[in-house]
Write a structure and sequence with these properties.
The protein is of the alpha/beta class and 289 residues long. It has 13 helices and nine strands. Bound molecules: NADP nicotinamide-adenine-dinucleotide phosphate.
């Protein structure tokens, strides 16, 4: 069993960490808001007094943080992950970040002699709890192979994507498609309802059609009904990913007018105070109710 240090006990990190503990790993945790560490300690984890201490004590360090800025702060700032990484240790970043920032972190990590793997995940709170995430691995294939048992404690499928940056990019593709899909679903369904088609009929017919899919199956009823938007995947993170997807298009020289328009809708919904609600609250970029 591995000695693992886990940093970032948010919606995803906390259940992922519980699954590592359940598989018998020796886990030490750290979170910026320290009160989030207590439930994991009660479940058998050790708490670290600092990031550097956590890295010193573990063989493997995992981060599950909001965005590239958070990863940069935790990794590269004074007394961060880099300050204590040495040869023989492996750092795995499972956050959703841009390919560029992942490559930059990888190059800094390798200078310490440690190994690096990017391993962003597909699936939200429920798969994180159930240990059924799909994990995309990017980096040295030998490191990816060696880390598979650890990754399999949190997910039921690991897809090796190739060099660092490719897994981060693939993750953005999925969120780019999810974000734009929820925007066009919102526009189309609200228009249909305004035209007199009941919400249940819209959902029933979509489900029976070529565009029926898991995202609408899971989120559609709430979006067209009560609109409570309980946060599984916070809108603020989806907003970040839509921005990163537009930037990825720019970097590749591929126009992204659809993603750019969807990104604007996410910006409006976030400005209206829905950043901490679910990604499905993007519908509130279109309507006050
Ligand atoms: P979350 O609940 O908002 O948790 C974010 C974590 O990052 C918290 O532990 C937070 O610490 C920490 N953090 C943020 N800024 C920090 C900083 N500057 N320094 C130190 N720690 C910082 O987010 P989440 O939903 O778990 O998502 C985590 C990552 O997974 C994101 O990259 C997200 O895009 C990705 N993801 C999410 C889902 C999903 O459905 N939720 C699915 C797949 C991938 P505090 O507790 O102190 O705020």
């Amino acid at each position: 069993m591995a000695k693992i240090g886990f940093i970032g006990l948010g919606i995803m990190g906390a259940p992922m960490c519980r699954n590592l503990l359940a598989k018998g790993h020796d886990v030490t945790v750290y979170n910026r808001s320290r009160e989030k560490m207590a439930p994991l300690v009660a479940a058998g984890a050790k708490d670290a007094s600092s990031v550097a201490r956590l890295v010193e004590e573990g063989d493997i360090v995992i981060t599950m943080l909001s965005d590239p800025t958070a990863v940069w702060e935790v990794v590269a700032e004074t007394a961060g992950v880099l300050s204590a990484l040495t040869e023989g240790k492996t750092y795995i970043d499972m956050s959703t970040v841009s390919p560029e920032s992942s490559r930059e972190i990888a190059s800094m990590v390798r200078k310490t002699g440690a190994d690096f793997l990017e391993a962003p995940v597909l699936g939200s709170r429920k798969p994180a709890m159930e240990g059924t995430l799909v994990i995309l691995a990017g980096g040295d294939p030998e490191v990816a192979k060696r880390m598979e048992p650890v990754l399999h404690a949190m997910g039921n499928k690991v897809v090796y994507m190739g060099e660092v940056g490719l897994a981060a990019h693939m993750k953005l593709i999925i969120n780019q498609m999810l974000g734009t899909l929820l925007c066009v679903f919102s526009e189309a369904a609200l228009t249909g309802m305004a035209g007199g088609i009941p919400a249940e009929k819209i959902l029933e017919v979509i489900e029976s059609s070529v565009v029926g899919c898991q995202a609408i199956r899971i989120k559609g009823k709430d979006m067209l009904g009560e609109r409570r938007f309980p946060a599984h995947f916070p809108l603020k993170h989806a907003h970040k990913d839509m921005r990163l997807a537009v930037l990825a298009g720019d970097a590749a020289g591929v126009p992204t007018p659809v993603t750019a328009a969807a990104y604007q809708l996410f910006s409006i919904a976030r400005e209206r105070g829905f950043g901490d609600r679910d990604v499905s609250a993007v519908l509130r970029g279109l309507t006050e109710k």
